[in-house]
Structure formats: structure tokens, C-alpha cells
Amino acid sequence: MASWHPNHHHDQHPAGDDHDDYCPDEPGVRIRPVTFAELEDYLEHLANPSQRPPLPRARVVGITSTQPGFLDQHGRPGRSAMAEYRRRRTTDWKTWKPTLAVRTAAVLAAGVSTGLLTATVAGPSLVWLIGLTAATALAWRLRFRPTAGTLAWRHGAQGERRTARLLASLERQGYQVFHDLAIAGSAANVDHLVIGPTGVFVIDSKRYRGHLHYSAGQLWHSGRPLDRRLATLWWEATQVAETLGFGPDLHIYPVLCVHVARLPWRRDLLVDGIPVLAAGALRPALQVTRQALSPEQVELVAAHVHASFQPAA
User: Angle formed by the axes of helices 279-286 and 148-168, to 10°?
Assistant: First the structure.
């Protein structure tokens, strides 16, 4: 177990990623040398394309056209997760619906049979009540319910909205907060991207039940290691770094924020270079000084995020 410190080395990389994209000295990602002055020139070109040629694609990459209205907002937390939940719920309903007739017949049969069995020991009005109670109980058990995998998407959206509420107060302190950003060329998304005086953070929100534990260098939940989740978070941070393309001028810090589940460690836990934080510890952790960005630099990076990312849903 280790505390989160900007000079702590991470010791594991996601499979399939280029290790050169990871920062060897800090738990953040840094690539491609683009200075803030060059970025300012590029953003001027976005505003006045006829007056200034664009920067070379090798320097600023991943620029895409933005969807209408996206420049006026910072995204909706949990939007894509809820969209996926609704799609999966519709699929579950289509699977469940053909069984409705059988379930209805079973409920009626339960009510009638229970009433007949109690007819010899109860009066007519009580028999009716007992039969209705039995039918209602079975109907509740046989009701439509989305699968656990489907519900996980709704829980994920709830976790993202909780994180967004925690991050909202940072905006009054000079931070820019984006939610639910699509990663071009993949189905993945960035839950939260925070840009502020202390650096740039890619935050993944998780709503787990029970508790997490750390042993043998691995993070576990419900008997399963979370290596894959952490590897994906590193990959997401790398994609953000590649898209923003600031090189050594800027570090991207991945963070895992956990809701509901109990975290038994007293200090911040660092697993494979990623801090694992209880939701209540997130905001203070982001305010610890790592990389000092001026208000102008925060605005420049935020403007580049606007120009480079689209909402996930």
C-alpha cells in the first residue's frame, strides 16, 4: 500500500498499450511536445480559420468537429451509462415479454389453489383474501426485473452523478469539469475530466456494494481482481493525453473514485500508479498541489478539450 504522491512510480501497464506513452517518473501520462503558446495559436485558428494556418497534425492531434451546443456545456454525467441501461432494459423486456402469459396463468392458479386449500378452515371472505395474498406474492416474484448486468449500468450512472455533485464546488475555485466524453474510435468514454490549478485528472466513477480489499499487489471486489478496470483507466488517460498532445508541458492523472463500498485503508491507496479513493476523499485529493497551472493555462486546456472531444451520448 502506498500513498498518492506525484513522484511515485507505477509498476504495471495495460496490455496492448505502448509503454512509451506513460510517464516514467510520475503517475501521469505525458506525450508529444506542444507548448501552451503553440496551443494558443491553434485555438486562434479555430476561431479565425481564414487568418492563420492550422498547426501540424503531428503536434495537435485528435481534433474533431463538435456537436451543436456542446461548446456551451460540460457534458451530462452518467448520460451514456443511462442510455446503455435503457437499451439493455429494452432487450431484457423483449426476452421477458413472451413469458407473460405463462406467468399470469401461474399467478391465477396460485390464487385459486390456495383459496381452495383453505376453504375448509376459513370463511368465504377470508378464503378470498388468502387467495389474493398468495397471487400477489407470486406476481411480485415473477414481475419483470432487468438483469444484474443491466442494473449495473444504472448504478454506474448514479455513481457518475454523485461524483459530478462532488466536483461541482471545484468550479468556483478555478477548475473546469467535463463529464461523459467520448473517446474517438472506441466505445469507451471518460466519466470525468477535471482541469485545474493542480493539474488534469481523468476520473472513473464506480458504485460498488460491499467492500474493496487490497492484497498481493492487487485490488479486489467480491472475489474478483480489478486489474482490468485499472488497466482500462490507464488506457483512457493515455487517450486523453494523445488527443490533447501537450507533451512534457502537461501530465494527465488517472483516479478511481469509489462510491458506497467500504475502503478499509486509512490513507490513499495507489494501485499500479492509480489512486483509489473513497468518494469523500476525492475533492481534497484533487486540491493537493501537483502541477501548477495558471488560470490562463486552465482556460487553454479546457478550450482544447471543447475542440477535441464530443459527448459520449
Answer: 40
pLDDT digits (tens, 9 = 90+) for 211-240: 888 888 889 998 889 999 999 999 999 999
Q: Residue 165's pLDDT is what?
A: 94
| Phi and psi at residue 155, to the nearest 5° | -65, -40
Beta strands in 240-297 (DSSP E): 252-262, 269-271, 274-278
Q: Quote the Cα angle for 45-50-56, to 5°.
A: 45
pTM to 2 decimal places? 0.73
Those residues with Cβ within 8 angstroms of residue 70's Cβ, 6 or more apart along the chain or in another chain: 306, 310, 311
Confidence of residue 79 (pLDDT cuts 50, 70, 90): very high
Three cell numbers, residue 161: 452523478
Alpha-carbon distance of 189 to 181, in angstroms, equals: 5
Of 299, 83, 61, give the one whose Cα is nearest residue 189: 83
